[in-house]
Structure formats: structure tokens, C-alpha cells
Design a protein that fits this description.
It is built from 4 helices and 10 strands; from the N terminus they run αββββββαββαββα. It is an alpha+beta fold and 136 residues long. Among the domains are: 44 residues, no CATH class; 50 residues, no CATH class. The strands form 4 sheets. The chain has a 4-stranded antiparallel beta sheet with strand order 2-1-3-4, with no helix packed on it. A two-stranded antiparallel ribbon has the order 5-6. The radius of gyration is 20 Å and the shape is elongated.
């Protein structure tokens, strides 16, 4: 979520929880707590804001195609992945020049899905397949 022009003009910041994401936009002097019990982090323009409201030296994370911060962005194909395991698995071939990224069609053929946050994810386990054969 990004702040509106009016909110930025007021000097507001975003409050986010590591686990639950965006919570609210309000004055930077406020203290916001998430429902999980953790204090929310202040963000301004994608950067963490110190208590004295100075920007840190950290660079803002790049956004993926859905406008969400990238987690495991591939520098070659610019696809974002929900975890390191699937990020490594999307690279196929042997070392060197023959190593390449899977295409979107190849990832979909493997059952991988693109989440609403714009990240590739492994298929959800099917509960009916996890159970053993039914006894008669």
C-alpha cells in the first residue's frame, strides 16, 4: 500500500507489521500495535523511519509486478518468489551458459501459481492425496 498525495502532504507514514503487512497510515509520532502483539514499523516511501523521523541509509526494496515488496527476486528473469526453495528450483540446466530460468508457462505446467501478491508459489497440498487408501 502506498500513501496518497494528501497523506504524504500531511507528513503521514505507513505502519506495517512484518507478519500482517500494512496496518494504517497516520502521523509518524503515533505508536501502532498489531493484533499479533508486535509494535508496527514506520515506513515512509518504502523506507524504515527512525523514531526521530530521519530516513535510514537503507535502500527501499524493489517492488514486484503487483506493487508489493520483492522477497526473492530473480535478477535474470525479474520474477518474484515466495521462498528461497522455489526461487532455486526455477533455475534449470547445468552450470554455465546452459543454466536458465523457467518461463511462466513452464512454472504453471509444474502446478506453481502466481499469488495475489505477485509471487510464485508451490501448489497447495491436496488433503485428499495425503490420506492413504480408504478401507472398505
Amino acid at each position: 500500500m502506498t500513501l496518497t498525495a494528501e497523506e504524504m502532504e500531511l507528513g503521514w507514514v505507513e505502519f506495517v507489521c512484518e507478519k500482517h503487512g500494512f496496518l494504517v497510515a497516520m502521523t509518524p509520532r503515533a505508536v501502532v500495535w498489531c493484533k499479533c502483539g508486535k509494535q508496527a514499523t514506520r515506513l515512509r516511501g518504502g523506507r524504515v523511519v527512525d523514531r526521530d523521523l530521519k530516513l535510514t541509509e537503507a535502500k527501499a526494496r524493489a517492488s514486484n509486478g503487483s506493487g508489493k515488496p520483492s522477497l526473492h527476486l530473480c535478477p535474470d528473469c525479474q520474477q518474484d518468489f515466495g521462498g528461497g526453495f522455489i526461487h532455486k528450483r526455477h533455475r534449470v540446466g547445468t552450470r554455465g551458459k546452459s543454466k536458465r530460468c523457467l518461463t511462466s508457462a513452464e512454472m504453471r505446467a509444474k502446478g506453481w501459481r502466481l499469488t495475489k501478491r505477485g509471487r510464485w508459489s508451490l501448489p497447495r497440498p491436496n488433503p485428499s492425496q495425503e490420506k492413504g487408501p480408504q478401507e472398505a
